[in-house]
Amino acid sequence: MTSSESNAADHVVELIVHDASQPPPPPPPSSSDDSRDNVDAQIAPLLSHTDRPKINIFTASYPRRKPRDEVTRLLESESSSPFTPCILWIWNGSRYSGLLCMALSSIVYFLMGVLSNLFSVQAIPLFETAFTRCTIILILSYLWLRRSEQPLFGTSNVRIILLLRALTGCISMLSFVYCFQRLPFSQAIVLNSTTPIMASVMARFFLREKLKIADIASLACSFFGVLFFFREMLATQEQVVKVAEVSNANAKPSHHIFEIIVGIFSSIIGGTSYCLIKAGAKASDQPLLTVFSFGILASPAMGLCTYIFEDFVLPRIESILLMLVLGVLAFFAEVLLARGLQLERMGKVANVQYMEAALTQFWGVALTLVSPALDHLIGILLIVVSVFCTMYIGPDKETE
């Protein structure tokens, strides 16, 4: 008994709590690790970027396309129209979406001109018409942004772009209305037709976009098509001016130099506004913000000009309905324009705008049912070939 008790007393179990075991120390570097470190040290300077890219308000970082933006989500959730899949495909479902949106915008502008010519029953001053359209654009864009739960003024990094876009768009519209009132119709339209060319040139400087030879050729071809439309009118007007100067030698010659300068300025500012639309839509990934920002400034500006420079004309019921329809169409045209500029390079998408001029001339030829002039046919052919080549070439393979 004594020996067994002593053996039991000798076996004592002790519980000792240790700290978490530390990871074993790394093995000493071998020769292969040394050689790998030397290779990495030699490659590292080649991979480092010492020169940071220049950034301005036009070149904010953004994704070119989102798989599902807010407009797409809103259409999918709240629209049951059978045309919804087609609209979504045009908006964001194809690599041609930018060109298709710009083409639809030109078609909508063409339809606005047709409706205005067919159903216009009352002469409304230009500033009053512009005020009505800008107000409708402002209201519709506000409702759309509220419905999609988007911030009205965007984030802080795009507000300056939206402000400049609204300012340049408003100045361009004011100067164009001034030229349209002071210049002959043909000269005002030709000057306004230079806006896509100016936009492509401005995009070369502000957005650092490449202006390829094919883009220059397409823009030149379309612009010459517009010149063919008004060649006879411009020549006739020049003869009328010469006859008037000869018949009245004491009268001062009227060459509209100042108005032409204002028209060129309007075209340059309009091209800059296109670049700001593109930059704002890309930076915010929401083209409706550029439309809303323009309406905020343009609507009160047009109303002020209506009060100062023109006598207010009370429209009749037919004119009110027509102005409402044209305002709604102008809203969709502006949204499609902003979307097209957002998705596609300026040199390509600007040329598609000349579709409106070709469709207008073709409609005039079809409506009169008379033998069209050769100049008009040549102009239509030039624009159709130019736009078809742009659509056939399609967007660039590499994402801008």
UniProtKB/TrEMBL annotation:
Which InterPro entries does this entry report, sorted A to Z?
EamA_dom, EmrE-like
Q: Which residues cross the membrane?
A: 99-120, 126-145, 157-178, 184-206, 213-230, 257-277, 289-309, 321-341
Q: Which domain of life is it from?
A: Eukaryota
Domain EamA span(s) in chain numbering: 97-230, 259-391
Annotated membrane topology is: Multi-pass membrane protein
Q: Which range is the signal sequence, renumbered to this chain?
A: none
**What does the UniProt keyword field contain?**
Membrane, Transmembrane, Transmembrane helix
Localization of this protein? Membrane
Region Disordered: list its residue ranges: 1-43
* One GO cellular component term: membrane
- Pfam annotation, one family: EamA
- List, alphabetically, the Gene3D superfamilies matched: 1.10.3730.20
Which family does the record assign?
Belongs to the drug/metabolite transporter (DMT) superfamily. Plant drug/metabolite exporter (P-DME) (TC 2.A.7.4) family.
What is this protein's record name?
EamA domain-containing protein
**Taxonomic source organism:** Pisum sativum (Garden pea)
Upper classification of the source organism reads:
Eukaryota, Viridiplantae, Streptophyta, Embryophyta, Tracheophyta
